[in-house]
Sequence to fold (264 residues):
Amino acid sequence: MFRSIRTRTHALLDPKAKSNLSDSFVNNFIIVLIILNAIAVILESIEPVYIQHKTAFHYFDLFSIIIFTVEYVLRVWTCTVQPQYKHPLWGRLKYMVSPGALIDLVAFLPFYIPFFIEVDLRTLRILRLLRFLRVLKMGRYTKASKIISSVLHAKREELLISFLITIFSIIAASTVMFFVEHEAQPQAFASIPAAMWWSVTTLTTVGYGDVVPITNWGKLFSGIISLLGFGLFALPAGILASGFSSEFSKTEKKHFCPHCGHEL
Fold:
């Protein structure tokens, strides 16, 4: 009996196992609650709104904590339904250190910390802001997040190479501009690390404008680096576009010729 209850509870909590209206209701309820929590954190930062509705915010947070705590406990209890967590003890411990379970834990753990550890007001405010991390829980409830996760996993090596190229370009540009501009602007380009701020804003084509080259060579290199910035950040965009295209093609239904069996 308990096994069937555990299996049914797991089906209610796991979006992959959705098969009826009750499953959809539970998952949609959690999604709406997560969104409302994100909105609540934003509204609480507006002091007049927070002071006027302090009690409502408190009770809504308390309600959310109860729901997320119960959800986490049920997930730990039902995780043994999955083959990789089938052991009643080690399986649950393995599940509790998985990324998804840790995100679920962060969603409500900051609420309980002041009950066990004495914290000052500043730390308490930081812990309250951690509630915004509850939006990460949406990852397990939406199909789009699973597609994004699959794309990032499939293209992780290409993205890593792209990231390393970006870091190298920032360091190279900072080094060049330091030697070119340091003499003319010893304060703005005081060192290579200081020049990295200009390098980042230029390569990202943001062009913040607080630090700009004034020498002719500096302006020339600045123009070249700005043009390189377009191609540099187009590289990961192309990698991700290719990954999404491949992922969407997997989800499309394939049609085969009934006579020869070839894909249409």
User: Anything to note?
Assistant: The chain has two domains: 2-141, 156-251. The chain is about 70% helix and 0% strand. Residues 8 and 78 are 9 Å apart (CA to CA).
